[in-house]
Amino acid sequence: MKEKKIKISEVRHRTFGKKTNLLFSILIGLFAFTCVFPLIFVMIISLTGENALVTDGYQLFPSEWSFDGYRYLYEMKEQILQSLLVTVVVTVVGTIVNVSFTSTYAYAISRPNFRWRRFLTIFALITMLFSPGMVPNYIVMTNMLQLKDTIWALILPMALSPFNIIVMRTFFNRSVPNAIIESARIDGASEIRIFVKIVLPLAVPGIATISLFAALGYWNDWFNALLYIQSDNLVPLQYLLMKIQANIDYMAQNAGMSSNMAGGAASIPREATRMAMVVISTLPIALSYPFFQKYFVRGMTIGGVKE
């Protein structure tokens, strides 16, 4: 029996050889490079001169380097900074609201003694499968809630995510033992105190995961601004960059209509500006990912396991 136990333990603790580890390290490194390379390539294109882009196309090592794309956007720095501030506020406030609603909803339906557990779970699943459509959403936001042209019109439509609810529900079921909650109830703790003092500290990886999902959604959102925002002071960054791109394309397509428009279109570095806008809109949220990484992997692993 002892010999069998030793053999079983040896099998369990057997590791790959050095050559196998090296092979997998190379494969993982190549995969990571393919994920990062597009952003690096876009940054190179944004720093390429417009003449070099027209003559040589996209090159890793361009013949002409230029900051014309960033200079063109710098001329609109006040409007871009205002839109960036709006986007940051919407992302931060929206993420807090989304995580608060999602985590409390998920915790409620994860408790076996909650009376409406099954009904609310099915309700969340139905909203994942069926959507009322754009027109009812617009009527609710503008006529019923009177939120048109307010910053809440950019926050509330994405304040609750059914997918994140299911992820957090599974996470709570697997990571928060019922024995701890029952013991806290016996000691006289209320449900809110149990949730804040016991459940939330145990659910940090899951909360970090859905926080990243929510932050990405708010940061990249432009459609709600297209529907509900008319004031220039409330335009988010993504929607502003889309408007700038649309104006550049319009000037380029109608350059032959007037000499002034032709001169303005010729002086705009179209391709470099387009790539510079991609860098400006992508880099800030990409830099925040390393802070969530260690929680993100664990949260997705636990929250994605089926019960």
Automatic annotation (TrEMBL):
Keyword Ribosomal protein attached? no
UniProt KW keywords? Cell membrane, Membrane, Stress response, Transmembrane, Transmembrane helix, Transport
- Which InterPro entries does the UniProt entry name for this protein? MetI-like, MetI-like_sf
- Tell me the superkingdom of the source: Bacteria
Q: How does it sit in the membrane?
A: Multi-pass membrane protein
- What name does this protein carry? Binding--dependent transport system inner membrane component family protein
Q: Which family does it belong to?
A: Belongs to the binding-protein-dependent transport system permease family.
Q: What Gene3D superfamilies does its record include?
A: MetI-like
Tell me, what's a Pfam family for it? BPD_transp_1
* Listed SUPFAM superfamilies: MetI-like
Per the record, what is one GO cellular component? plasma membrane
From which organism does this entry originate? Listeria fleischmannii 1991
User: Which processes are annotated in GO (biological process)?
Assistant: transmembrane transport
